[in-house]
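hey m, so remember when u said the tokens were messed up on ur end? i reran from scratch. heres the input so u can diff it against urs
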Amino acid sequence: MVDVYGAVTIKDVALSAGVSIATVSRVLNHNLSVTEDTRKRVLQVMEELGYNRNEVARSLKVRQTRTIGIIAPELSNVYFMEVVEAMERILAPKGYTMIIGSSNDSVAEEKRKLQVLVERNVDGLVVMPAGAEGGHFLSKAVANIPMVMVDRRIVGLEVDSVLTDNRYGVHQMIHALKCEGFRRIGFIGGDPEIHTARERLQGYLEAMNEYGLPIEERFVLHRGAMNQSAGRELIQRALAEPDHPEAFFIANDSLHLGATTYAMQSLSTEEQSKLVFASFDYLSYAPLLKLCHYAVAQPLERIGQEVAALLLKRLNGDKEGFPEHVMLRPETKIMTANGGLPFETKVMIED
């Protein structure tokens, strides 16, 4: 008889079903040698007894936890969560569960979360780095765990990565603003130590030079994390200057939200009507950000699929092409309802 005060064990299931412990184990592991009648009887007993498989004990035995650890700079960023959801659509059917943590844009917190995931014996890692420091990813404890970096890379770190062609996307935005008639275009970005922030700043400077547009250092603003708070602060600083540009390129969605929030709360309707944004990232609510005329749409579903495919490849022991760097080209979006004008996409020659 099963002890009502204790956890139901595989032995309890075997006794109640009238089979061996080995047979129950084969049912749990989907072994085809078990007859259909026996499989159904064992599964029915499991349900009646309320049996739950002890995955912790199983993971110690097979040295697999079927878990993937994910570290993102901020969980409130819709970009990261949409990529994670796309990954889950592929990894979940393969039996993997994801453990997600935020670094809060802090390398120190990233190190702590990494240690927690290593101690939980995750089978793989997906990291969206908080900064340029990468020594903590070189430890022996991490070296044997397959890892894919998303959105950002760390110089000198040999790991698989899935990135968006940032320079291409920024060039399209500056081209669009120029075609609309703007010559003075400001920049709102993040700390250039961050891979994404650096690439988008470089893309802005390259495009401005290519089109013969003036680069005004006073309005090329970038610092710290690329979050809403920074977006509010930087656009406020730019607009405090009486001769500020009427157009700004904003380096990501969180900065864009912060800048738009400030403008809507602090500027008059007339002042808002003279301000135009072009932004990197086009998410579901982008058309509602009325100051934005153009946006870069990253292929979020494809990014998640590529990350999952790379991770599964490494988990299966396939080291071919390591480290592999997948570069995806974004799409440009024109918000015509906000005043954006159609323009001919600028063709860039690959380096």
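this time it looks ok to me. The first helix runs from residue 10 to 17. if urs says something different then somethings off w ur setup not the seq
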